[in-house]
Amino acid sequence: MKKINLKPIDLPLTGDLSVPGDKSISHRAIIFGSLAQGKTKITRFLNGEDCLMTIKAFQAMGVKIDQQDDQVLVESEGIAGLKEPLEPIYFGNSGTTARLMLGVLAGLPFHTTIYGDLSLTKRPMDRVRDPLREMGAKIDGRDDGNLLPIAVRGQSLSGITFKPPMKSAQVKSGVLLAGLLADGETTVIETTKTRDHTENLLSAFGGSINVDGNTITLKGKQSLTGTEIEVPGDISSAAFFIVGALLVRGSHITIKNVGLNPTRTGLLDVLNQMGANLVIKETKRVGKEAIGDITVKYAELNAVEVDGDVIPRMIDEFPILALLATQVSGKTIIRDAEELKHKETDRITAVVDILNTLGAKVEGTDDGMIIEGKTPLIGGEVSSDGDHRLGMMIAIASLICQEKVTLVDPDVINISYPTFFDDLNMLQAK
Ligand SMILES: O=C(O)C1=C[C@@H](OP(=O)(O)O)[C@@H](O)[C@H](O)C1
Ligand SMILES: C=C(OP(=O)(O)O)C(=O)O
């Protein structure tokens, strides 16, 4: 397994940075572009391994998709033009591809088999399997279709009203996408609002959807039209450098053109509560998505308790928040975050293990973590464990460790942020 040595730095992070496009929006732009008739032009597409899986899935169904770095042109005849793939489709490491595509494949008139890497193969699909079966889907696979590989025999589906038992945008989106192909109306009622990019993008492609608080309703059998999509910078990628700047004394950075959709900005709220004084400036709106700049300076922070409705608004930011919490005054308590157990790794156990190996004092709980602040980090050898967000957390931790950090399996970072080390070097060079 590849390993890299990361040395502690005494250089602050400074300058301006544009992070790559949002992963969630990039996936959805490909999905809707492929379901729509005509041409869709996507700019600032995330050229990361996960989003390439979604492109390959539709190419396997006959859609013409030309991707050059962060520019993508999709040309589709729409839903009726999609063809049965001849071979099983590989979804790699991407949970979003799996949960959203299950919704799509369930309503297409052909058979598909899907599989993934070892991490994805362990992740639960029953959360989408169950509502999709209620709509009439034929899904089978390991553990009765809970685990990949999964075979889907596409069917005509009927709309349902569904209240997801977990707070998950992937589940909501899988059901809404199936609803788009189904007869009748589909309603999803969430207990807590999760990221709403599916709802926003459906409108951008000319679809009609009604959002009333946490209740989302759409009619089936809508036809969509290709369009132009500019993807905002990914706030979940920006989070690593925002926290990096808060950790390294003397840092002062601005992340430009990043997505500021309120269903994604939970980390910014928590950092402000901790005393970060971020300057957040909305500069434009593209469709229903807000875009802007975030300026952050090094600051001494205080611990807070993180729980409740903010959790889904920052679900991918917990590894990097946990690292930050090791350096603030007081004890940080994270609750209601049991969903972390179902990510690329069990992110409660994995974050606790990694940070404690580096010298921190972190305790895992059933639904979160308790992190002792102001604990010096020493260093050591730690693995990303095949989880891109853990790889980036370790790289940022190395900035403040007293000794060398050896990161095992750094290439996994390519899943969501292929230019991560270039951007880190650029911020250190100024
Ligand atoms: O819908 C999406 O694009 C995503 C939703 C979240 O997953 P859950 O829906 O499982 O919380 C998040 O962790 C993932 O990175 C992307
Ligand atoms: C959980 C993540 O992605 P996915 O579920 O798409 O694998 C993530 O990017 O942190």
Automatic annotation (TrEMBL):
Cell location: Cytoplasm
Family: Belongs to the EPSP synthase family.
UniProt KW Transferase keyword: yes
Keyword Lipid biosynthesis found: no
Protein name as catalogued: 3-phosphoshikimate 1-carboxyvinyltransferase
Species of origin: Amphibacillus indicireducens
Pathway: Metabolic intermediate biosynthesis; chorismate biosynthesis; chorismate from D-erythrose 4-phosphate and phosphoenolpyruvate: step 6/7
PANTHER family: AROM/DEHYDROQUINATE SYNTHASE, PENTAFUNCTIONAL AROM POLYPEPTIDE
Positions bound to 3-phosphoshikimate: 23-24, 28, 168, 170, 316, 343
Assembly behavior: Monomer.
Reactions catalysed, as given in the entry: 3-phosphoshikimate + phosphoenolpyruvate = 5-O-(1-carboxyvinyl)-3-phosphoshikimate + phosphate
Active site, UniProt feature: 316 (proton acceptor)
